[in-house]
Amino acid sequence: MIDTQTDTFHMVQLYLDPRRLVQLGKMQGLPLARTDTNYLVHCALGELFGDDAPKPFFVDDDPRTVEETAEYHDDRHVRVLGYADADDDILQQEAKLSPNPTIGNLYDKDRLDSHEMLSSFRKGRRLQFKLRACPVIRKASAGEGVNQNGETRTWDEGDELDAFLAKAWSQPEKDLSREKVYRKWLSDQFDHRGGATADPDQIAMTRFSIERMTRRTHGADRSVETIKRPDVTLTGTLQVTDSDAFVNLLCSGLGRHKSFGYGMLKVRRA
User: Fold this and answer.
1) 131 and 234 in one domain?
2) Which of 53, 118, 229, 241 could crosslink 45 through cysteines, CB 3.0-4.6 Å?
């Protein structure tokens, strides 16, 4: 995890072997038929690099499970980008402490790379961005609403809901669209976190799907559960309003489920 008190952070790029990802899943007792690539990447990064593992991170889009990738594309590696305190040299050293060859050889050592990111942005700087997000909200209290078919839907305090469904069930609007809701969700994220602003009308949803998300539960009995959540790619232009807060935002990511491949804000010149 990135220490936002340090002076530098890095963009890291690495390539993971899908066949060894499958082996790692088997070693950890995961149900591979319903385990998504993002979760296996999350496991792999932790095993390889420990506390220095890149987070947030981004996995190149691929509709297949990692098991299918391994079966049909033996020459393909899973490309991962992430933000980290450590550069590629430090990560190489950490990976050498892996206790198992399956883990130590999860990544292509010749293609692990990094570069130092800007640690300061001038106020007013405009940047293009791309974000793969899981736009969900937690309900502060229990309640009920009505869906578009007139059916009653209920939720409990603390439940996590798709931001679109939360809006549609509680405040029905005739022309409500997912893109409109997700634009507002992201604009609110910038406003609440500070460091940048973005006009919702200039945010575009370029990809949407409902994806399965596999994760281990907490507690003594760490079983595996599968949930469904929105998986959205949003692009647009932002304006930096506070350099330190913006760097903080980049390092920590946006939204929930950042450990599973969501929330990495990729930026470039506007």
Assistant:
1) yes
2) 53
pTM of the model: 0.85
Which residue range forms the structural domain that includes residue 211?
126-136+176-269
pLDDT above 90: residue 75: no
pLDDT in tens, 188-220: 999 998 899 998 888 999 999 998 877 766 656
Provide the pLDDT confidence category of residue 62 given band limits of 50, 70 and 90.
Answer: low
Residue 30 inside a domain? The answer is: yes
In terms of domains, do 80 and 197 share one?
A: no
32 and 107 housed in the same domain = yes
The total domain count for the chain is 2
Query: Does 256 map to a domain?
Result: yes
